[in-house]
Amino acid sequence: MEEVEILRGKAKTFLKYAEEALERRDFDFACFSSEQAAQLFIKSVIWSWEVLRLHRVRGLLHLLGRSVPEMEKPITEFVEENREVLRALEDAYIASRYMPSTYTREDAEALVRLAEGLIEFIGRVLRECRH
Question: Which domain holds residue 106?
Fold first, then answer.
């Protein structure tokens, strides 16, 4: 579907911006862009089932797991293994824009790596489910 490809393209663009922001030492924007990349990629996967208004990455992952039973166990394990950094990614959605605090290079690197890993993980699980 065209909508899915549009969302995936936006996810890739946000991830590219996150990586570029990290290089420029713009850690707040790197964190925000990482969260957006992860959120949009997950939404692209479940777009064909319903139009989403959910923004929390863990909630999106939970919905994806419920929607594709073969994915539920690996997604649950991924969320459990990455709970703290997923929480930090979700917090970055608001904090990187509106809170009177800033992120460090280490924060931004962790969230960029998480967004990369999450996108790669979901893609791998999807390929395995299709076989």
Answer: 2-130
